[in-house]
């Protein structure tokens, strides 16, 4: 069975109503990124950071997977599909995708500030005073600016083994995720779905769908199946 790697970004979740990572002025929901997505921000004001992610987590329960998420899940019937997502929501899982690699963490998990390997399923608010088993504060299980991306090696391996690569709803500007395309085997087909596609010019065998995920993903899948 052919292996398909799918790299998804904020664009696919935006169509379900989830706020994109940041808008044109560099703010995320009115906050400077470094206030809510960096170790420095956490050390300066953990209450603000917790409140920010508590609101994002609450919003997640109000949205549903869209047709792009569902189409990618259905692709599992024909291929061995692994989703590599920069998104911290669970919409791929809710749509039915079985193999999802979260590069930047997950909103529905919390982790210890004492031991980053102590990760807990967490659907409610995280409060100051919520402790791990070693009596240290819990924090969002999110990869912040300046932190290592622990899942990147797994993602690289997935891309290296892929027979085809699909890129959906990402600007390809955020590293190390944007560098994953460089690990694809030279001759495999690449399907890029984004309203403003930007890819390195040296890449070959690229089919571009300059549109949103909900319309572009089904078209890309149709081409993939009949190639």
Account of the protein in words:
- The protein is α/β, with parallel strands linked by helices and 227 residues long.
- It folds into two domains: 1-18 and 65-104 and 149-227, Rossmann fold (3-Layer(aba) Sandwich); 20-62 and 107-142, 2-Layer Sandwich (SIR2/SIRT2 'Small Domain').
- It is built from eight helices and eleven strands.
- It has helices spanning 10-14, 33-36, 39-44, 46-60, 67-74, 91-95, 152-161, 213-225, and strands spanning 3-8, 27-28, 31-32, 80-85, 100-102, 105-112, 119-121, 138-142, 164-168, 190-193, 206-209.
- The strands form three sheets. A six-stranded parallel sheet has the order 5-4-1-9-10-11, sandwiched between helices. Strands 7-6-8 form a three-stranded antiparallel sheet. A two-stranded antiparallel ribbon has the order 2-3.
- β6 (105-112) and β7 form a beta hairpin.
- The longest helix is centred in the N-terminal third of the chain and has 15 residues, at 46-60.
- The radius of gyration is 18 Å and the shape is elongated.
- The two termini are 15 Å apart.
- The model has no long low-confidence stretch (mean pLDDT 92).
Largest sheet: 6 strands, parallel
How many β-strand runs?
11
Order of helices and strands: EHEEHHHHEHEEEEHEEEH
Q: Rg, please?
A: 18 Å
Give the full name of the CATH homologous superfamily of the largest domain: TPP-binding domain
**What's the assembly state of these chains?**
single chain
Side by side, the strands of the main sheet go 5-4-1-9-10-11
Number of helices: 8
Secondary structural class: alpha/beta
Contiguous uncertain segments of 5+ residues: none
- Tally the structural domains: 2
CATH class group of the largest domain: Alpha Beta
What is the terminal-to-terminal distance? 15 Å
